[in-house]
Amino acid sequence: QANDACKCNGWKNPNPPTAPRMDLQQPVANLSEPCRSCGHALADHVSHLENVSEEEINRLLGMVVDVENLFMSVHKEEDTDTKQVYFYLFKLLRKCILQMSQPVVEGSLGSPPFEKPNIEQGVLNFVQYKFSHLPPKERQTMYELSKMFLLCLNYWKLETPSQFRQRSQNDDVATYKVNYTRWLCYCHVPQSCDSLPRYETTHVFGRSLLKSIFTVTRRQLLEKFRVEKDKLVPEKRTLILTHFPKFLSMLEEEIYGENSPIWEADFTVPATEGGQLVSRPAAVSTVAVPTTPLFSKKLNNSSSSANMDSSTPEPLPGNAGEKRKLPESLTLEDAKRIRVMGDIPMELVNEVMLTITDPAAMLGPETSLLSANAARDETARLEERRGIIEFHVIGNSLSQKSNKKILMWLVGLQNVFSHQLPRMPKEYITRLVFDPYVAQRGALGAALVWGAPCLTLCVAANRKHKTLALIKDGRVIGGICFRMFPTQGFTEIVFCAVTSNEQVKVKQGERLVGFSKDIKVPKSRYLGYIKDYEGATLMECELNPRIPYTELSHIIKKQKEIIKKLIERKQAQIRKVYPGLTCFKEGVRQIPIESVPGIRESCSLPAQKGKELKDPDQLYNTLKNLLAQIKTHPSAWPFMEPVKKSEAPDYYEIICFPIDLKTMTERLKNRYYVTKKLFIADLQRIITNCREYNPPDSDYCKCANTLEKFFYFKLKEGGLIDK
């Protein structure tokens, strides 16, 4: 500044002007104009930046955004210790902006790593120490559990020193406060502030911190999995709910045991085949939590894996413009599933597979099955393999030198979104496509993509936007602008558009394939993170990482061919001619249909499905078990208790026959349900009452729809109804 006595805050205006509407064109500021804060010419504020490179200016701008985020965090944080750390980092970054220097945390905290061996190495040593004698499949299961634990630990929010002090009365409080401060400065805050170097918790801390947090973290983890057990896929449910608690119990013994060898610097792998686990890096060093649910799907390997042999951890890098890799083939281990009653023998399936892969013997699917979709994605798949179209995940970066090709693609994306979404302000589209930082917390609440569970909240909700660009012949023909909320477990689609000449004509009334208005993500998880605009419809698409969606039509086609071949073989087996019935000549007027020779062999009639249970005790136990499952369902919370008149004064004027799960429980204890029909009628009455009183798009009706599907599925599963 020309005047050394100027006290202008720069980007912090004590009397900011009224915020202009973002959909209006803003005039470009001139450096000769006066500053709104101090009155000096704007050129005086930037005179010292005349000879600074563009890369350095971008770095400083990134620090400015981080300072804004920390400023907000200081005012929102209630814990005193955490607030002090945020304020220290706020002053540090502000000082570095003025001095144009690199931020370095000073003081007695030291620099990473703080302890050796680190947590990751200790846990991997534990897996090899305890499970190296197991067969490869079981040993790999333990290895997957260790990866899941390490990943959770990297993104888990630690308790504050004041909370730790309440449950611990020993001398470890001071040590924990130091470790907590280190964790904030080097691990937690850098998740949202790119100006600070970031390290993984499991790379820079060791046994000391793990002993302080393990008991609480273990309880919170298991409680989270228990509450959300209904969302677990069947093949992972036993692994998570049964094996993971045992795994943590065994790990606890080694963490608190005085003579545990896994924390020794010279720990050696037992001389067994278990040593092969060392050669596989742990997939825990990701820049963000994967969008795959930790508790329901298999963890994918990250592109930035941990180097277990490195002595000094390096800050985690970012990447942009990386070309999407084609999906790799699933391994034999991935394809294996738990066998259930009624499964077709694998030998028969393999035999049929050999038949249908022969073009001369292939039956071919009916042309009416997914004909339009199959042709569409088959063409796209072939174009990608031939290099005609490409998919790139790109984003604007302030920390790396600008890439001309990526910038051109971003401009192309901005044009596509502006033309195809004319109601969206161009300035708004440009800000989200080009700027990796968002000043506002909201964006278009168009869709949710369900993924990882809530692990911890970042210092600020502002996250980078990235865009999946669809490139054809070197130009942008479409894209999806999205924002990931890894700590909340979903990704928000902000814009999705394709150029007009590349669009497939869609019939009026067709909805987005894969998207549903039935939102499964709890509202508390996304409320405040995205905006739900008036007139917009919030929809959700849940993705399963085990499904290769680009090959979906091909898979369905192959499955249909297998089923047709199996039906053909089954028909060949049942083409047996049985002798005619002679019982009617002997005076018999009626016989059960299942007694007709050949009926059971050809139709597989159910034995006792749908029949009324004669034994009262058996009926009572069956209904009791079913009611218990319904009450623990996540969507059952609105129906647990009778509706209070204070909450809904006119409820009992509209609903003539109120019923709830508590009343049903009392009726069940009093042996009111002497037949299954009475029980089913009360269940259906709960749903009917809800739909009669509440609007169709309310949260209560959404819960009712989900719960209805669940209990009818359970009724069919228990043989209480036929269809």
From TrEMBL:
An example of a Gene Ontology BP annotation on this entry? positive regulation of transcription by RNA polymerase II
The Bromo domain extends over: 631-701
Q: Where is the composition biased (Low complexity)?
A: 296-311
Entry keyword DNA-binding: no
| Keywords from the UniProt entry | Acyltransferase, Bromodomain, Transferase
- Gene Ontology, cellular component aspect: ATAC complex; nucleus
Q: Where is this region: Disordered?
A: 296-328
Instruction: Name the InterPro entries for this protein.
Output: Bromodomain (IPR001487), Bromodomain-like_sf (IPR036427), Bromodomain_CS (IPR018359), GCN5 (IPR037800), PCAF_N (IPR009464)
Asked if Lipoprotein is a keyword of the record, the answer is no
CDD domains (alphabetical):
Bromo_gcn5_like
GO molecular function term, any single one? histone H3 acetyltransferase activity
Cross-referenced Pfam families, in alphabetical order? Answer: Bromodomain, PCAF_N
What is this protein's record name? KAT2A acetyltransferase
